[in-house]
């Protein structure tokens, strides 16, 4: 089975491609922005037709949610137009298509867990681009899987964990929002889940995050507790930090879809965070007490 991957050097792709490469029976065609301009849909289509993969795994995206508010056209071209082009090409060659989407397709109202079938109401340009891309994928490709995820962190690229640890070296008190609730998700765990999905033909929409939920402030406090930081987290409302793009306050995503289709759920986010910090050298092997839930 041949897998075509976009965003190979991104935060998720950098964990995903080596994992796929170790899987027996798989061959890879990994691309990134340095060798394939996703804004050039003709080049994208031709690359897929030349490669003729069995699976297209589309992990590349425009992800700067605040900048997207002023670069809406570029965000649309990368997140919607390129995705539609890939989905169309997948259908043309009979390939399955796995698209990475986001909790930002929802409005974030209430406190219930969003099921995959819940109505979408994005609050931002980025969220709208992902929502429209989902619609395009489902209308253009008959062998489509959409995976919504949230709050990614991993070894490669920028993320909340790295930012917080850097700030903790300079500040004694760090204000962090306490009214945004979601599930931190380790890219290595997400990559393993995606590996288990490809080739299964269990098409549809999925939510894939690490188990458990927390606020951003609770996530920050656990990071510093495990890393042994002396800085204190100051929980504040989102209104204290006005941003160009509105964030969903409720990013609780139901993973019932995984259980219903025979896919395993990911470990708890505290377990994932402890492993990530060990693997990056932020904590020692023994400094993980309380890293997993009781």
Cα separation of the termini: 41 Å
CATH homologous superfamily assignment of the domain at 2-153 and 186-211 and 253-266:
NAD(P)-binding Rossmann-like Domain
Could you list the spans in which at least 5 consecutive residues all have pLDDT below 50? 285-294
CATH architecture of the domain at 2-153 and 186-211 and 253-266: 3-Layer(aba) Sandwich
Global geometry: globular
**Mean pLDDT value:** 94
Helix content: 25-40%
Structural class of the secondary structure composition? alpha/beta
What's the CATH first level of the domain at 2-153 and 186-211 and 253-266? Alpha Beta
Reported by name, the CATH topology of the domain at 2-153 and 186-211 and 253-266 is: Rossmann fold
Biggest sheet architecture? 6 strands, parallel
Order of helices and strands: EHEHEHEHEEHEEEHEEHEHH
Give the strand tally.
Answer: 12
Percentage of β-strand residues: 15-25%
Q: Kindly report the spatial arrangement of strands forming the biggest sheet.
A: 2-1-3-4-5-10
